[in-house]
Amino acid sequence: MKARNTIRLGENIRAILERDPAARNAFEVVLTTPGLHAVWNYRQAHFLWNCGLKTLARMWAYAGRSITGVEIHPAAKIGRRLVIDHGMGVVIGETSIIGDDVLIYHGVTLGSKTGVRGKRHPTIGNNVVLGAQSTIIGNITVGDGARVGAATVVIHNVAAGTTVVGNPAKTI
User: Fold this and answer.
1) Would you say the pTM of this structure is higher than 0.85?
2) Domains of the chain and any CATH numbers
3) Which of 46, 106, 121, 156 is labelled catalytic?
């Protein structure tokens, strides 16, 4: 288990070095990247959540939010190599599902439009880019390889490989 976790830590660092032109080296990334710290903190909170320690998991997530400015509910499901670039203000709701190799810029919200229990947050596919200040609301799907432009409001499914912009989102 320890070797697998070490590999995943390295994956996270490499993903940032590959996708963030401002990232100069692994040492700097580890010390100064709040998005990386938020993802690592989420992994720990998610572990606690899955162990049934829900209040402790929420407290852990809250502490991480206070430090990084990124709020990720410990029940969310997040794939591998998530990069949160300039993460301040990112919110990832409880029933959100995020695939592998997703890039999220600052101010993105994966939110719900109802207060009912059950799946109420978005599902984000693999290799998706969510532009700064974009808002993806409700139990919708953003398909693999899709791009969501900055300040876009998404309230309907986004097909794989497409780019959407505007409020409400329109395919371009």
Assistant:
1) yes
2) 2-171 (2.160.10.10)
3) 106
For 121-159, the DSSP string reads S-EE-TT-EE-TT-EEESS-EE-TT-EE-TT-EE-S-B-
Instruction: State yes or no: is 106 an active-site residue.
Output: yes
Burial class (CB in 10 A: 0-12, 13-18, 19+), 104: buried
Query: What would the pLDDT profile of 39-83 be if each residue is shown by its tens digit?
Result: 999 999 999 999 999 999 999 999 999 999 999 999 999 999 999
pLDDT 10s digits, 21-40: 999 999 999 999 999 999 99
| Spatial separation of the C-alpha atoms in residues 145 and 5, rounded to whole Å | 26
Report which residue type is found at 23.
A
